[in-house]
Amino acid sequence: MRLHLWSILLATTLAACAGSRPPASFLHADSSDWNTDLNVVVDINLRNIPLGDLGKYAPFQQMNVVFSGVDTSYRITLEVKQVTRRQALWMIARQYGLSINVDRSAAGHPLSVVISNS
Q1: Given pLDDT bands bounded at 50, 70 and 90, which one contains residue 26?
Q2: Which letter does DSSP use for residue 51 in this model?
Q3: CA dist 38 → 6, 43, 63, 94 (Å)
Q4: What's the pTM value of the predicted model, to 2 decimals?
Q5: Residue 65 sits in a domain of what CATH number?
Q6: Is residue 6 situated within a structural domain?
Q7: Range of the domain at 110
Q8: Which of 23, 42, 80, 101 fits 59 for a cystine, CB–CB 3.0-4.6 Å?
Q9: Region 9-17: what's the mean pLDDT?
Q10: CA nearest to 100, candidates 41, 109, 111, 75
Q11: pLDDT tens-digit map of 58-101
């Protein structure tokens, strides 16, 4: 009985971890600096902050975050350890039903993270 319960807990944990991994194409760009920055492992401690302030908090401070058609006063929370910035943004997108993309349209300008409604 104990082994069966352990197997169920392990399967549930693995499924939860797999769900926190974004698809390979999520926020991927042709810029190696961009991809390197998004793949840095960080700790996130955001508690009840306005979505519009996301770029003011570590580790997203250096990112250009643009909002399109979302309520920027909507409060979000994400507390995780040892995830990449890319994973953290994926978790926020999934948890709050948002679409998060990279803006590639500004030739010669730094890339931006665009957050919109799904």
Answers
A1: very high
A2: G
A3: 34, 13, 10, 17
A4: 0.80
A5: 3.55.50.10
A6: no
A7: 22-117
A8: 42
A9: 44
A10: 111
A11: 999 989 999 999 999 999 999 999 999 999 999 999 999 999 99
CA distance 70 to 80: 24
Distance CA 86, CA 92 (A): 10
As given in the structure block, the two tokens for residue 82 are 């040892």
Q: How far apart are CA 102 and CA 115, in angstroms?
A: 9
Identify how many contiguous H helices and E strands the chain contains and give both numbers: 3, 5
Task: Provide the domain count of the chain.
Answer: 1
Cα–Cα nearest to 116, from 64, 75, 53, 67: 67
What CA–CA distance (Å, rounded) separates 78 from 75? 10
Q: Give the helix/strand (H/E) hosting 53.
A: none
Q: Are 93 and 99 in contact (CB under 8 A)?
A: yes
Q: Give CA–CA dist 30/42, Å, rounded.
A: 22
Strand 98-103 to strand 112-117: parallel, antiparallel, or no bridges (unpaired)? antiparallel
